[in-house]
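Lab notebook, bench 4. The sequencing result for the construct came back, and we need a structural model before the next group meeting so we can plan mutations. Quick request posted to the team channel:

Model the 3D structure of this chain.
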Amino acid sequence: MKKPTPSLLLFGAQESRAGTKPENEDAVAMHLPTDSSLRTKGAVAAIADGVSGASAARVAAESAVIGFINDYYSTPPLWSVPRSAQRVLESLNQWLSGNAQVHGGHLCTLSLLILRSRTAHIFQVGDSRVWRLRKSRLECLSKDHSRQVGSKKYLTRAMGMDARLDVDYLRDTIEVGDRYLLTTDGIHEVLSPARIQGILRGGGEIEMICQVLIDTALDSGADDNLSCQIIDVVEVPEPGAADTLTALSQLAFPPALSAGMQIDGLTVVRELHASNRSHLYLVKDNDTGEHMTLKAPSVNLLDDHSAIERLSLESWICARVHHINLVKVKYPDRPRSCLYYLMEYIDGITLQKWQTLHPQAPIQEVLSLADQILNGLRALHRLDVIHADIKPGNIMILRDGSVKIIDFGSAHPRGIIDYDNQINSTPLGVRQYSAPELLNGFRPSEQTDLFSVAAMLYEVITGNAPWNGQHSIMKTTPLPPIYNSNRYAPRWLQAILDRALSYNPRDRFSDAAEFRAALTGKDNQDWEEVERKKETNIWKWISATLIIALIGSHIVRGI
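Done. Here's the predicted structure in token form:
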């Protein structure tokens, strides 16, 4: 019998009191999910302290903790924890700062602890604190945003203080036995770290420990509101295990399939494609008659657990991305007996074959294809998913000229898989379409996907890969002009490709929308003028070089 894979198991407790003050302006909120959101979003503890003297301190604190938890779990499941949290924090801060300007007093500190998979994510604004007790040693993981002036302490950052929010962010690897603590300054201003450590190390239920912390702080002279939260880590997932995908990856391999065979109410029509990683089959639903594509792992992967996880991840991603330019997953109303997934059948050809059939395609037609590819990537990137294998073989062109991006086998969903997991060790992309930083071991990003699109666009227009695929020279050698190989290529397009194929990712387009706007002329940028300036600078450089050479020759003759 197979031993069940460990998942994230947590216990939590919290308490908040007014203390000696007439009103409690602290707020705490905690959510430890028991459904799939524990795997996609994790568990959250939020603690806030309304700024004393502010007229709406209590409202601000309560709005911050409750609003964050509600909105955080409403963000797309494919978004990473940092992206989800940052978006929610920015939205909350805008609301608080807007109210502070109109009504005044909507200010509070906010500390967040999000535990997902094997990682703790800490977000900090203000002087509430996040601590970790590991093997009897207490460590403060957050940094106070405050300044001492004489006998008074002033906050330098707070929620609602400014329209622009500056948030500290820290990642911490979770270990079994870790105990995390969040406190407001009513506790840690009067209790030393050693005193807090002693209380946390004491026995008893964590609910009782929360009470002891507050009681001890009050006995020590605390004159502020007092709040604390404790989360104990009981179990964590195995390293490299994508717990979201465990059920999928544990399915048995399908048998070798051939035309006429039956599987789960589907009839195999023919094999469409085979590689050392996967097999694609055209199948027909016996109930509806609909044709679909079935993707199954190759038998070569039978003992390759990470590759099996990768296929499971691919189906999970495909089921959650919906866009006209992305391949769709199909859901027959029947359980699967083995590891495979179904997609729409695309009656078309790859961009690779399309290039062969259209060696001198009209520029506008090529730009239309690029626009659709970027439109699909824009939708993917908004879900925090990097495709990481954009190449002509993964772009399907239908009979009506519409485009579908396929094959998410190398995709990186930041919200599901941590980069330190083994599942991310799969080699990415094809060298001639891969951004140079990928070849140097850097992580895939939006800019690496956009580089691949630009490389394909350049190849379709000129018939050659950029720099003929020699990435080693691109840092010092200008991109060969497209109009040297295609007399119909407009010069303004050269300037766009120069930027999109920049060696440094920061010099490329910031996102797919900006790249699309440039290609369609909707970015209000005169790319023809950019190209003319570039040529003028080149001629100036050549002229200067010639003058220096002539001066040098006169000097030699003068000798």
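Residues 348-525 form a domain with the Transferase(Phosphotransferase); domain 1 fold (CATH 1.10.510.10).
Will bring this to the meeting.
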